[in-house]
Amino acid sequence: MKKTKKLAALVLAMVMAFSLMAVTAAAYGAEEHDETCCEESIQPRKPAAPVCPYCGTVTTDMGFVWEGGTRYIKFQCLGCRDFTTRVRY
Question: What pTM did the predictor assign?
Answer without folding.
Answer: 0.48
